[in-house]
Each structure stands twice: as C-alpha cells, then as structure tokens.
Amino acid sequence: MFLSLTGITLSAPPAQANDYYSSITEASAANVDWMSRVPDGTSLSWLSVPGTHDSLALCGERDPKTGKCGGVATSIAQTQENHGFSAKTLTTQYRAGIRALDIRVRLDKGDEGLKFTVHHGSAHQYANFTDVLNVTRDFLRAEPGETVLLHLKAECDGGTFGCEDADGYRTDAWRTSGAYAKDAAAFDSDHFAVWGRQVAQDKSLIREQVARYRPDLLLVGLGFNDMGWFVSDAPGTLAGMKTFVDEARAAKPDVEFALANVPQRERIGGRDDLITKTDTYNRLLADAVPDWDTAASPVKLVDWRGAYDCAPASCPAAYDGLHPDARGEFQIAGAFADTLHEEFGLGTSALTVPAGVPARPGGTPAGVKAASADTGIVVTWDPVFGAFGYEVRSRPAGTTAWSTTRVTANRSDSTWVVDGQRMEYQVRADTGGSGGTWSGTVSATARPKTAAGPVGIVTRPTATGVDLAWGTPTGPHTDTIDRYGVIAYDRDTPGAFIETVGTRGKSLRFDGLKPGHRYTLAVQTWNGAGGGMPALGRPVVVCAGTPSAPTGLKVTSTDATTVRLDWTGSAAAAGYRVWVRNVTGGGPSTADEHVVEETSHGIAFLFPGVWNFEFCVTAVNGALESGKSSCVVAPRPAGS
Predict the structure, then answer these.
(1) How many other C-beta atoms are found inside a 10 Å radius of the C-beta of residue 463?
(2) Range with the lowest mean pLDDT among 18-22, 269-273, 433-437, 602-606?
(3) C-alpha pair distances (Å), 433 with each of 7, 174, 308, 321, 438
(4) Which of 116, 137, 347, 529 would staple 129 via disulfide (CB 3.0–4.6 Å)?
(5) C-alpha–C-alpha distance, residues 562 and 634, integer Å
(6) Residues sharing a CB contact under 8 Å with residue 246, sequence separation 6 or more, in sequence order
C-alpha cells in the first residue's frame, strides 16, 4: 500500500512573488556591500535582513558520471539555485546581498575524525561546515563592512526520510520534533506524504514514485493547499488531479486509487473564497470519479469532508481550526477505512471511531524560568516531546486574571512592560487538543532598559493615510534613542496585522492606508536595548474630515457614584472624548486624552454623588474634533 496523504497548512495568504525572487543573479551589484552603508549603532532588531532557507540545499541525487543533480529526490530536496558545491553557492548569495544563513548538518565520523556534513534531511549536499566557514571568511575579508548571521541546526531528528548522526553521537532533537509513539509496533512507515504538498507538485512526481515502488493502491489526500495558497481554483485543482491519475497509470496501468475530497476549515477573515472553492471542487470531484474509474484501474472517492468534524462555523476535530487533534485523526483514518472496506473489500468491517479517543502524549513543561532582560522579561522552559506549541499565561503579581498567548518555541518574551512591575507566568504544552497541565508559577520583576514613548503626539488624517508629529521623550534611557517606530492598526479589517514604519525624525506621513477605515495609532521609541512601550496618539479615519457632534446623549445612574453614558455616533468619527463638569462645585468642563472607541462609556468614583456632574461628548478624527454634544446631568438614584 502506498500512502500519498499530505499535511494541510494555511494561516494567511502568501506574499505575491515577482521575478526578483526567481533568480538570485537578478540582484543589484550594489548589494555586495549594503551593510557597510548601515550606521554601526543600528540594532539588528531594526533591520530586515535578507536570508535563505536551507541555504545549501542544492541536490537530492547526483549523477557520479556527470556531477549533475536530478531525479525526484532533487525536486524535493533542492531549495536554492545551484552555483557550486562545497559551499561555493554561498559566494553568489553573499554577493547578491544575502546575510542570513540557515545551515543544517549531520555529525559524521570518518577516517579524518568527526565533522559536520551539510544535509537536507537524508540528502547530503556535497559540502562540509568547514566549507561554509572558509567561504564566509573569504567574503568577510574582502568586504570587512559586512556581517553574516548564521543559524546552525542539527538536521538528524530520526524522522521519516531523515538522517542518522554518527554512532554514539545521536542528537536529542527527536525528543521534541515528534515521532511515532514509543510503544507502537514496528511497521513499514515509508510513504510519499510531505507536509503542505499540492496536486500541482505531485502530478509531476508521482510517475517516478509509482515506477520505483510499484504500489497496488494509492491513498491520496491532496488539493487543499492548491486552493488555499492561490495555486489554482477548483477546476484547475480537478485538472491537476486528473493529470496525477494519468501519470500514475502511465507507470502502472493497474494501480488503484482512493481519492479524498477536501475538508473545510474554520473561517479565516477575508478568505470566504476558500469556502466556495472547496465546495465547488468537492462537487466536481464527485462527478468526475465515476468517469475516471475503470475495471483495470479503479478510482473510488473518500469522503474526507463528510467524516472530518470541521466546518467554517467551528472545527472541534482540530487543535487550531484546521489540523486534526487525536479525534480528528481517527475521523480521517475512518474516512479512508470506509472506502477501503466498502469499495476494495479490505478488512472484515469498517473502522469505528472510538467514543473515548486516547489523548496524544504530552507533558508538563519543566525547567520554567523567568528573568528580567533589557527588553522586559524572558520566560524559558525545557521543550516537551510532541508539542505543536505552548500556551503561556501571565498576570501582574497580586492580581487574579490571566492573559494567555501562544508561542511555537520554548521561549516567550514580555516586552512593553513597566520598570518595577512584577509578573507571574505559567506554561503548558499544546499536543493537539489534549489540554496539558499548567506548570508551576514563576515570576520576575521587569527592569527594561527601553525608553518610554514620546509625548504630545498629534495625528491628522490625509487622503491616503495619516500625518503624525510628536515631542521629545523624557525619562530613563532616552539618551540612547536613535529612531522611532510609528504603528498603525486597522480596526476595520478582521485579523489585520500591525503595520510599522520607522523614522529618525519626529514626524512622519504614514501612507498606503485604506480610505474610510479607522486606525489606532502609536509611536514607539527605539534605543540600544530595543523598542519601548508605545505611546498612543488619537485614532483617525483615513480620508475623512472633522466629524459632526454626537447626538442623543443619555446618562444612566447605576449607583450613587457610577454612571453609564450612551450616544449616537458621528460619521467620520474615529473615537470620542467624554467631558465632565462639576455643576455644584463650579469650574469648567474638562476631558483627558483618553479616546473611547465605542458609543458608550462608564464612569465611576463620582463623589460626592453623580447628580453633581454634567456630561458631554465630542467626536474626534485625530486632531480634528467636533463641537460638544448636548450636555446632560446625571439623575439622583432613589435612596441617595
């Protein structure tokens, strides 16, 4: 049996590539010394450093006669243009401006002793780590103004298609990268499944695999990534699947197929097209399979979509809205098992998904530590076998409510914390919906060396963005400030990313924003320690003017010292300011710089009683502000 069930990945649309991503030789000759033109005091955290993934992955199979790479193994293993083995490709990358490397090695023991050989999985890349160091040394000698960042990874993790380190020197990477359960019976685990694979890729690879391994039956789960990553639409994905079937038959005319349709996933903002594409493809595939089916080479449909408890509204069978937890894995296996039993006569009965699905093995993170750092607080812990990621919850010491974030590595950084603030942390591993146990509580007191945000931030909407200006920051660590980061967040786009633009000045025009959308704005200082806590400026509505005054203001006295205000919003308003006047004690109506984003607001601690206070509201669009609404005095609650 030959398995071609691929993993599924999708989080957000990919960046749109252009021709300059296709060949490194397109790079400008000026890139060879671009770092020499960056000021020496520039923090790495401020730079976007060009790099390569699996930097020397050039080959899968090399013909010993010609020295050339080829075959399906190369199409899988190669991630870079080949500009020479023995790390010579790095010279071309360096001259094109690449400064961040990803080098993956196997520990090898030969006649000359121990060495690192460069690998991509089990595929040797005809270079040693010594070659990497020599080429890098030669480049830096020629270009002393440059710097190279190098990530060195132990490639051998014991996984399928992986490599093995020299005897007695095996690394412990397998302990955390995942593997088959330790008590699983030995079995032939070879397959052609690759995480994230597309029909567009496999249709040109399958013929050689079938010719080499001569499978009787192909189990195929492909198509989601074609539509999810904009490779093709539903008809295009179906055409790719037909080519896949034809190519497999060309190598073995009597091969049989169990072809799965495509599951839905939990809704992603801005990707309703994926819901429609999935439904359309599944309908087209169901209509096509009977036409593809022959007596010599049967093709049968697997209803993955129907068996897997995952839909746009909710996805209880997944741990992240798409990828299966333990129950979801049983459901997927059940879909294939039903087709294998009912259509191919395999097994005495169909697979029944058990009521009590065993939880994936997990563990409570050990070695949890929290420590103050220049940027805030850093929390670290020992990796947990089989973890997809970790949940880290934090709270100010002395409070009860936790704030939870998710991270993929065994480290979490708390930035934007106040000097002297003591924080508490707990960590648990995410092993796919099994709900791990929280670690014990650790704590640390923040002593950041970052600087506070600037004061006096003024924001003004423009036709395509916003103009900002601000004053000079004061306080500790402001003497090393050398730039600012202007932050914009689109409140009207679900799932929007925070956008940041840097400047060395104290003003900036932030362009390219969406007209009519409301944006939250802030300015962050950057010094030698990194980015400090941002200071908020007034929000804006892009391409809008001064808003009209709010109407319909009502005040409700919830108790003797607390009121709730409600009003009708204004066109072009990015937020509102609430004005308060003590009508008994006299004095003017005042408002601070706090901007309310909604059309309601509560105010407490109004002494000696709410009936002594008058309230008004203005609408703001950055520095543009309406006149006051009609003002109201809070009624005196009964019994007050």
Answers:
(1) 10
(2) 18-22
(3) 17, 21, 15, 11, 14
(4) 116
(5) 10
(6) none
Helix or strand run (H / E) with residue 481: none
Q: What SS3 string covers 560-620?
A: CCEEEEEEECCCCCCEEEEEEEECCCCCCCECCCCCECCCEEEECCCCCCHHHEEEEEEEE
DSSP line for 190-252: -----TT--HHHHTTTHHHHHHHH--SEEEEE--HHHHHTTS--HHHHHHHHHHHHHHHHHH-
Tokens 């799965």 correspond to: 260
Q: Write out the two tokens for 468.
A: 């900002």
Q: Which residues, including other chains, have CB under 8 Å from residue 581's CB and lie 6 or more apart?
A: 587, 588, 589, 590, 613, 614, 615, 616, 631
Cβ within 8 Å of residue 334, ≥6 positions away = 307, 350, 351, 352, 353
**Those residues with Cβ within 8 angstroms of residue 221's Cβ, 6 or more apart along the chain or in another chain:** 4, 5, 6, 260, 302, 304, 332
pTM over 0.85: no
Give the burial class of 494: count Cβ atoms within 10 A of its Cβ; 0-12 exposed, 13-18 middle, 19 or more buried: exposed
- Measured between alpha carbons, how far is 470 from 467 in angstroms, rounded to an integer? 11
Q: For residue 169, name the pLDDT band (cuts at 50, 70, 90).
A: low
Does position 195 have pLDDT exceeding 80, yes or no?
Answer: no
Q: Round the average pLDDT of the chain to a whole number and report it.
A: 88
Predicted confidence (pLDDT) per residue in 49-91, tens digit: 999 999 999 988 777 677 788 766 677 788 889 999 999 999 9
Please enumerate in sequence order all residues whose Cβ is within 8 A of that of 183, keeping only pairs 6 or more positions apart, or say none. Answer: none
Q: pLDDT at residue 542 above 80?
A: yes
Measured in degrees and rounded to the nearest 5, phi and psi for residue 304 equal -60, -45
**Among candidates 85, 98, 78, which has minimal Cα distance to 27?**
98
Residue 617, beta-bridge partner list: 578
Residues 84/93, Cβ–Cβ less than 8 Å: no
SS3 of 337, please?
helix
Distance (Å, whole) CA 470 – CA 278: 49
Q: What is the DSSP string of 425-443?
A: EEEEEESSSS--PPPPPEE
Q: Which two tokens stand for residue 560?
A: 């003797």
- Which DSSP helix (H) or strand (E) runs through 3? strand 2-5
**E-assigned strand segments in 403-546:** 403-407, 411-414, 422-430, 442-445, 458-461, 466-469, 483-490, 499-503, 507-510, 518-527, 530-531, 535-541
CB–CB of 615/580 below 8 Å? yes
Whether 7 shows a pLDDT value over 60: the answer reads no
295: number of Cβ within 10 Å: 6
Please list the alpha-helical segments (H only) found in 261-344.
Answer: 272-292, 304-307, 326-344
Residue type at position 354: P
What Cα–Cα distance (Å) separates residue 420 from each residue in 69, 454, 455, 474, 577? 59, 20, 21, 18, 31
DSSP string, 55-83: TT---SEE-TTT--EEHHHHHHH--S--S
Going by pLDDT thresholds of 50, 70 and 90, the confidence category of residue 428 is very high
Give 484: exposed, middle or buried? Use CB within 10 Å, 0-12, 13-18, 19+: buried
Give whole-number Cα distances, 630 to 194, 212, 610, 626, in Å. Answer: 65, 82, 18, 12
> What is the torsion angle, in degrees rounded to the nearest 10, for the CA atoms of residue 312, residue 318, residue 322 and residue 324?
-140
Dig out the tokens for 543 from the structure.
């391409």
> Other C-beta atoms within 10 Å of 4: how many?
26
DSSP state of 54: S
